[in-house]
Amino acid sequence: MSKITAAITAVNGYVPPTVLSNKDLEKMVDTNDEWILSRTGIKERRILKEPGLATSDMAVEAVNGLLKKRGISAEEIDLIIFATVTSDLIFPSSACLLADKIGAKNAFGYDLAAACSGFLFSLETGARFIESGKYKKVLVVGGDKMSSIIDYTDRNTCIIFGDGCGAVLLEPNEDGYGIIDSVLKIDGHGRHFLHQKAGGSLKPPTHETIDAKEHFVFQDGKTVFKFAVTGMADVSAQIMERNHLSADDIAWLVPHQANLRIIDATAERMGLGKEKVMINIDHFGNTTNGTLPLCLWEWESKLKKGDNLVLAAFGGGFTWGAIYIKWAYDGN
Ligand code: UT7
Question: Against a cut of 0.85, is the pTM above it?
Fold first, then answer.
């Protein structure tokens, strides 16, 4: 029998309807459209505004659409891996909540926390479950309600992030399509530069932590930028080299959407023109675990069977990596 690989066989996404534009932010903090656009590439982002809705509710929309597209029922799902840093609750996991809400009665699942690289790490993990032969349908979900942990009086962070969720289905393939290779890394020294100070076991919530705004994202943007530019480009170049891929061989770079300048630097290092790079940061901002599946969702109709894709990300931890995928179906 030929080797089993894990192929993406369906993709879908969801973003909430409320738009938060740069112009809106100008009224909230000392910033301006020109600064945001030139420094980050962001024009607007989506916000999940309705009270009582959380990350798993965006996932329900994305996954129900995915199941419909693929023509399968939720009961056929074996495993749900949910990449998020904004789980609905500390516990149980958003994977549990999602399984309940969509009726995935035969699945097990869990959340995976790797900040902006969570979707990549989840894809790698999901692929191993498929390759083992034991599981046939693995849902990999990436989504965040970043607005729930953003201080909208802090111009260093509130201009960057948005809410959204995407999902892919992994299924076995015996023709060599799917997830081919990965380079994944973590370095905990990076924790000082991008984190949420309170709410965990180190600093449980108190009146003081709330007053000190320690439940919001803290980012030393300049330092993270420096590491992200080299980190994302390094692993992308590395995955090309070890798979003997030239720029001509690559159909698409699917980069994490933290800053257009980081994306440009990665594409340049890989020798790719802009026409081969998926970019949704202009209209969705940085949706953390949502960026990669939301790109695949928006570009799905352009993807062709056999296309070589490199997915790359860098995020809090630090965490970073690149995954090489041979796309398994014609998108239209
Ligand atoms: O997804 C997870 C990983 N995260 C990342 O990869 C993010 C990496 N970092 C970045 O994308 C960028 O560092 C930011 C977009 C966060 C910031 O851009 P920057 O070019 O690094 O700006 P900066 O922090 O160095 O600030 C430059 C200037 C400062 O003013 P002075 O000191 O030069 O007078 C800031 O006070 O811009 C000022 N500034 C702003 N001005 C208008 C900072 N934020 C804003 C703002 N609007 N929102």
Answer: yes
